[in-house]
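User: Before I run my own analysis I want an independent prediction to cross-check against. Here's the chain; please return only the structure tokens and, at the end, one sentence I can use as a sanity check.
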Amino acid sequence: MRATIKAKHHTEAERETVADSAGVQPDDSPMSAAQPKPQVLLEWRAWPAARQPRKAIATAAIILLGAFLTVLATVSLPLGLVAFVLLTLATREFFLPTRYQLTEEGASAEGFLNSYSIPWRRVKACLLSDEGVKLSPFAGKSRLEPFRGVYLRFGDNREEVVERVKELAKERGI
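Assistant: Structure tokens:
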């Protein structure tokens, strides 16, 4: 037995009437209409390996040494390659550039194979360090701190980032 489904095409006015009579609002999902992107207040790129070439060379040497020692210990070239790939992926935020954005809605960091974002409504603390600012969802210390929030690493714009984060945090009572 074969069933056929006939689609009835509604005009915009008919859809609104059907939605009103059913007690629901018309579909406002991203699929139905393009959502406006939040205005970017500050955008920059940070690449720690380019700013610290000696540290980059030392880290690359340690990665190669780790892969070599894995080959020696296991007598397996494939395991050595796996060790090399895993160690390289673990240090990708250091070796590859990351793009950061501050918007009215939140902050984000996008790198190779990773993307982090946090809306301002979830930020409870801004923690300043020598290399960046951590936007944390915790007001106090937590064991989960390293795994939550977004770390905004400075490029050549430390003062600009700190000032903008202070402004946005103050506006939101953080």
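Sanity check: The CA atoms of residues 84 and 132 lie 28 Å apart.
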